[in-house]
Specification:
Distance between the termini: 18 Å
Shape: globular
CATH class: Alpha Beta
CATH superfamily: YjeF N-terminal domain
Number of helices: 8
Radius of gyration: 16 Å
Oligomer: single chain
Number of strands: 9
Length: 222
């Protein structure tokens, strides 16, 4: 299995978007649909979904929309500064607002307690907080959120990479989500191979990046 670095994956994303012309929101939608494909919708009826405000969180918001379309009960939480959401995160958040889906913005103890109750009662937790761009230790309220996810979830699925894991080395950046299953996109990241205790089952899903892109970037970065 070909394993790539986070830098290589970012370069492939950039090339697919800027040189091939695939809109980033299309890649995000494809990623969300691949995650839905890997959820047992017959068994999982209630879901706690926790998003950051980057593109990993944008994936999570798109996943939330598809779960709702599939008539699932979704408790949506967002952690992070909403004023700093990425473009595609904001597009998906606006869609959910237009669908009149309520979400809880985690800012302190009150919201953390609501999150805890949601994790305990729901069938599945989806971790969509941090992606492969995380390079520093998880701190503050993010640390509290991940701790609750690990302690109170019945089943955990991580989007692309468990939040808190270094995608290159597999190092735990202070704290990491400990998943039962990780759905990663396009190609496996090197750090995932070093951290089975945290990734659980790893499934690699295509999101529409052409093979040409992979070849060009790997040749360029040799």
């Amino acid at each position: 299995m070909l394993a790539i670095s986070c830098e290589e994956m970012k370069a492939m994303d950039f090339y697919a978007i800027e040189k091939i012309g695939i809109p980033s929101i299309v890649l995000m939608e494809n990623a969300a649909l691949r995650v839905i494909d890997n959820i047992d919708l017959d068994r999982m009826n209630s879901i706690t979904l926790i998003c950051g405000v980057g593109n990993n969180g944008g994936d999570g918001l798109a996943i939330a929309r598809h779960l709702i379309i599939n008539r699932k009960n979704v408790d949506l939480f967002i952690v992070g500064n909403l004023d700093k959401g990425t473009k595609d995160f904001n597009i998906n958040l606006n869609i959910l607002k237009n669908m009149e889906l309520k979400f809880i913005h985690i800012t302190g103890e009150k919201e953390l307690e609501i999150l805890k109750k949601s994790l305990v009662k729901n069938d599945l937790t989806i971790d969509s907080i941090f992606g492969i761009g995380l390079t520093r230790d998880v701190e503050d309220i993010y640390k509290d959120v991940i701790s609750l996810i690990n302690h109170y979830s019945n089943n955990i699925l991580s989007v692309d990479i468990p939040s808190g894991l270094d995608g290159d080395t597999g190092e735990i950046l202070g704290i990491s989500v400990k998943s039962n299953k990780t759905i990663t996109f396009h190609l496996i990241k090197k750090g995932l191979l070093e951290s089975k205790e945290y990734t659980g089952e790893i499934i690699v899903e295509p999101i529409g990046i052409p093979e040409k892109v992979t070849k060009v970037i790997l040749e360029r970065m040799e």
